[in-house]
Structures are given as C-alpha cells and as structure tokens.
Amino acid sequence: MEIMVFFSLLLLVCSVSTNKSEADNEILDQQISNQQPCPQDIHAVLREMAVSLAEQKVRMAFLEKENRDQAAKLESQKIETDQLKLQSKEQVAKLESQKTEIDQLKHELQVQQVAFSVGLLDQGGGVTGPFDTEITLIFKRVVTNIGNAYNKHTGIFTAPVRGVYHFVWTIFGYGDIAAGAYVQEWREDFSCI
Predict the structure, then answer these.
(1) pLDDT digits (tens, 9 = 90+) for 87-136
(2) Is residue 74 packed enough to be buried (19+ CB in 10 Å), middle (13-18) or exposed (0-12)?
(3) Which of the ends of the chain has fewer CB neighbours closer than 10 A, N or C?
(4) In 79-113, which positions are buried (b, 16+ CB within 10 angstroms) versus exposed (e)?
(5) Any idea of the CA torsion for 153, 156, 159, 160, to the nearest 10 degrees?
(6) Is the Cβ–Cβ distance between 116 and 146 less than 8 Å?
C-alpha cells in the first residue's frame, strides 16, 4: 500500500505544475490516471528501494546472529551456574562431614584427658568415721573433674579410656583407731571402680 501511495505521489510530482488552477488540476488528475509512468523515475525508485531492502536484510541478519550469540552465551552461563551450584552443594556436604569429624575428634580428645581432684568435705575440716563396715566415701568437694570420670553422687571413678592412672590419698588417724583405704577392683582394660 505504501508503494502505491509513493508511486502515485511520484507521478503527481512529475506531471503537476504548481502554477495551474484548480480546473487545470482536475484535467491533470484525469491525464495522470491515463498516463504511463516515467520509466527512468520508476527504475531509480526501485533501485533505491532495492538498496534499502538489502540494507535491511543485512541489519536483520546481523541482529539474528547477535541474538543467537547472546542465546548461546546465556545457555553457557546457565550451565556454568548449574555446575557452580552443584560444586557448592558438594563443598557444603564435605564441610558438614569435616565438621562432624572435627566434633568427633574433639570429643575423643576431651575423653582422653582425664583428671580429677576432690575433697571429702564441702568446706572446712572435720572427722569422717569410724565405720564398722566397708563404705564408699563420697567426696563432696569436686575441685576438678576433666573428662567427667568421677561421679560426685556415687563417689565412683570410672576410667573412660585405656591408660595409666595415678591416685594419691592422704589418710591419717589418732591413737588406736585403724585407718585404711584401697581401690576396690582393677580390670584388664585399666578401668577402675
């Protein structure tokens, strides 16, 4: 439609004179409709249109190539992002595993450290005993209990790991009162109850 309007205007320009009256314009309009267009003018217009069309095709091809390149780049970035997400998940899982392992090692290290220091009375001095039967003395004052091997409620120390343990008691008595202390039982695994 635009081409027809363009040709009509071109024909009008070729054949219309600006100095004519309105009656002359009507006669010219009738002549224009009956006249054949100027071949050299039409060819020039067609050449311009062909050049313009060729330019449009080149631009369109360039934009299509640019769109394909951008789509390929976007797809590549998406794949890379997915790979990074997967690596991140793997690293988080590995980190969690290492954290669990570190926690276990900390626990084992804490369990391997055993030491306790206790006193028979909570505070001050006093006498305990005499007793007619064997009893387990419960030391009321717990100064140190690394490894929680000494149970302050039962008075029993249980060795949590294999190793060598050194115990020191200070016992004294007055006059003819017998005093004594002993470890009830040693086991093969070096635990004591």
Answers:
(1) 999 999 999 999 999 998 887 776 677 888 888 887 777 777 777 888 88
(2) exposed
(3) N
(4) eeeeeeeeeeeeeeeeeeeeeeeeeeeeeeeeeee
(5) -30
(6) yes
